[in-house]
Structures are given as C-alpha cells and as structure tokens.
Design a protein that fits this description.
The complex is a heterodimer of chains A (about 130) and B (about 325). Chain A contains three helices and seven strands. Chain A is of the alpha+beta class and about 130 residues long. Chain B is built from 14 helices and no strands. In chain B, α4 packs across α5, α4 crosses α8 and α12 runs antiparallel to α13. Classes of the chains: A alpha+beta (about 130), B mainly alpha (about 325).
Chain lengths: ~130, ~325
C-alpha cells in the first residue's frame, strides 16, 4: 500500500478512535472503593508484601501503603491500577497536589491530585523513604 | 528449480502484497465494531482511552520500524535464498505448507520470546496492557529486528520457500491473530478449539495469573502447544487477569517499547557481577536475578502452590514432587 494512503489512514484512524473513546466516557480513572480495594490493588503487584496500613486519597484514585518492607503507593493507570515502593522518591508540591518522581524507567512520574491537608501530610509520611 | 542456462530461478523476483498494511482498514473497522458491541451490550470487554491510544501508537510504530528496518531481515533471507539450491516453487500447496511450517516457526519464536529475556525485551510491550481488546493486538514491538529471531526462519528459506512467500505467510499469521484478542467471543465449537488458536486460548496467554504464565504460545494452530506441552485451557473458575507480573506505571510509548532493554542494560552493567551473571541477565528467563531477589514464572508458580496446594496437578501447575 502506498505510504500516501497508509499514513493518513493510520493517523485519522487513531485520532478518530481515541476521540470516540473519550466522547463515550471511557477516560475515567480507576477508583479505589475503599481500604480493601487498595489492599487488593497492592497485593496484585506485591503479593508477598502484606499492606499493614492504607491511607486513601480523598478522590480515591491513589493510596499510600505501608508494609514491613517500607512505604509504597497504589495509583490509577487509566481504568486500572499499578503500585510501586517509594524508595528513592523525590516529592514536589504542585498546584493540584503532589508529583512523585521515581528512579524507575517504567514509572517515572506520579501526579497525585490531593487536597491541601493531604498534600501537607503525605510528604511527612513518605520522608522516611524519600 | 534452478535454471542453469540463465543462472537464476523463476521465483527470484517473486513478490506478494503487504497484507498487514492492506489489513489496516479492516483493523480499524473491527475495533470500531468491538467497541460499539461492548458499549451497547455492556459486556464483552473493556476499553480505556489512554490504554487504547498507547496500543494504537505501538502498532503505528511497529509499521514504521518494519518499513525502516525490514531490509535487515529481508537481506538476510535473500542471502540464504542465493545459496540454497532448492526452490519449491509457488503452487498453492507450497504456500499452504509454508504457512503451516511458518506457524511452527512462530510458536518457537514466541516461546523464546517468553523464555529468553533478550527476546522478551522486544515482546514484553505486547503484554503490557491491562486490557484485552482488539487494540491490544496492535500493541506490537518496535525492536524485533534486534532479537535476531529472523534466524529461526532460516530453515524455511534453505528448504526452498521463497523469502517473499515466507514473509507473506508471516503476515497472514499476524492478521489471523488480530481477531483472537477479544473478550467479546467466548468459547467456539470444540473441534475449532482443538485445532485452532482462539480468543479463549489466547486470553490465557495474556494472563498474569500464576496458572496462566508461559502458556499457549501458538499463532494460528493451537496443536503446537498441545504437542509441546504448553497448552493450558481457560478455566471458568479462574478469570484471566491481564497484564504484566509488574504492571507499567506509564502510557508513554517510548518507555513501553524500550523499558526492558533499559532494564537489561542496567543489569548487565552492574558492578561486581561475573561475566556469566551478566550473560544470564540477558539470556535467562525473565525474572532471573543473580541474588534470587526477583521471581521467574517457575518461582511464581511454586509460591502459588505453596499457598494453594490443592491446585497441584491442575492445568498450568505441574504435580508437586
């Protein structure tokens, strides 16, 4: 197939599908319904490290997790979640909450939407690991 | 066969259509149909905007890398074609045989792709979505050339299948695999599930459940998995959990495409490793580590059986010794 046909078709196809998905309301981030849900999301990534404490964000899109190995975080990845330990994290205050930079090529930045109290409190909870 | 008078064979200039390119309109239409089915029926899978965008961009990148780097494999194949005295011609039966043998080739390349970290580094992106829909099928590698897995196709060329025919069959194989990346289709008639790779079989392959790891490598014919002992059926009692053992925290296509290569580089350049350990970080199964701090699929399965001994001997788990 000539590139003059293939290229526009791919570009228009991708743009059209993505626009349709967004208009259909399929861009909503995953919500952690409660502590149990956050624990389950953590256990999905680290089944050997039991969560001993969970602190949910007010919007339920992220949670701080404490384990015997240290502090970690669960956060939304689109409609799903993932999790990382926060060893080596660099934390910055942003207008909407916090930005966490991790020394991890597969999860370099986490942008958290937190209220003012959370944005004040979470860095102190993380300082032992950061 | 060779024409000694002219010094070339009738099939030397053989060409076939770029079937994967011609299939792009079908891919777009099928994704649209699956999406509308899911939205209207409220079942049959899930879509999410950023995940789908990443998958589609990976597909576009794969086409780009094939256009840019395809000459490497093709030059290798044409060099083999120049030295082989065999030419099986272009009859329909030869194309059919080529398709079946290339599917056997696919099975082994795919198995290597899950068992050798160097090859996994290229293939991992295909498994990096936590969704399983038709866009996941397009989440393809950008770095396949660097795995050198084109070597596995060498016997086909040397046996007398023209490189263009082999690549044509490989393209048809990939097109077949597109439609099996869906949750909208349940199980198909028993005879079909017995012979062919199906959505059900391939859902298992994309599972991160301990039971479903390293299973169902087939491209078109599931018989290869049945023959080589890697077949695991989809169980009604255990829903497939899609994605990687450690899911990515980014939708950035560059990071999706290259993260495992970066991981290999960082591991093999660590200080205080022996040369054997450096080599193992590149060639051992994913999850291997010199200090045992990571989990391979075998260890994940062993840990699961330690907690769930009742699963021993069930599909996906060997009987405990």
């Amino acid at each position: 197939m000539p590139l003059s046909i293939l290229l526009p078709m791919v570009v228009i196809g991708i743009a059209g599908l993505v626009l349709l998905l967004h208009l259909l309301g399929l861009s909503h981030p995953a919500t952690l319904t409660g502590d149990a849900d956050a624990r389950a999301a953590w256990a999905r990534e680290f089944p050997d490290d039991t969560a001993t404490r969970v602190i949910l964000s007010h919007d339920h899109h992220a949670a701080l997790i404490e384990t015997a190995r240290g502090t970690g975080i669960v956060w939304h990845m689109g409609a799903d979640t993932t999790a990382r330990y926060l060893a080596g994290a660099h934390i910055t205050r942003t207008a909407r909450g916090l930005r966490i930079d991790l020394p991890d090529y597969t999860a370099p930045h986490i942008n958290l939407t937190l209220d003012a109290d959370e944005a004040d409190k979470w860095p102190t909870l993380l300082k032992d690991t950061a | 066969m060779a024409n000694p008078a002219k010094g070339y064979r009738m099939t030397d200039m053989l060409t076939y259509p770029e079937v994967t390119h011609w299939a792009v309109p079908f891919f777009i239409a099928a994704i649209l149909a699956e999406l509308l089915w899911i939205v209207i029926k409220g079942r049959g899978g899930r879509y999410e905007t950023r995940d789908a965008l990443t998958s589609l961009l990976m597909g576009a990148g794969n086409v780009t890398s094939t256009i840019l780097l395809g000459f490497v494999a093709y030059s290798f194949f044409m060099a083999l074609w120049a030295i082989t005295p065999l030419d099986l011609g272009t009859s329909t039966w030869v194309v059919a045989l080529c398709f079946v043998l290339d599917d056997l080739r696919y099975y082994w390349v795919h198995r290597f792709g899950h068992r050798i970290r160097w090859v996994w580094a290229s293939h991992v992106n295909h498994h990096s979505s936590q969704h399983y829909n038709l866009t996941t099928a397009l989440r393809q590698t950008w770095t396949g050339t660097f795995t050198f897995m084109m070597i596995v196709r060498a016997p086909l060329i040397l046996l007398g299948f023209h490189p263009a025919m082999v690549l044509f069959c490989g393209g048809l194989n990939l097109i077949y695999q597109f439609w099996i990346h869906t949750e909208a289709i349940g199980k198909l008639p028993r005879w079909f599930e017995a012979v062919m790779n199906t959505p059900s079989h391939h859902r298992v392959h994309h599972g991160r459940n301990p039971r479903y790891l390293d299973a169902n490598y087939a491209g078109v014919f599931i018989v290869w998995d049945r023959m080589f002992g890697t077949f695991v059926p989809e169980l009604d009692s255990e829903k497939v959990d899609y994605g990687l053992v450690h899911n990515l925290g980014t939708f950035n296509p560059i990071r999706v495409a290259f993260h495992e290569w970066i991981g290999i580089f960082r591991d093999i350049t660590r200080p205080d490793l022996t040369w054997r350990e450096r080599l193992m970080y590149a060639l051992a199964p994913p999850g291997w580590s010199h200090d045992g701090s990571r989990d391979t699929s075998e260890r994940i399965k062993r840990k699961h059986l330690a907690q769930h001994p009742e699963d021993s001997g069930t599909p996906g788990f060997d009987p405990r010794p």
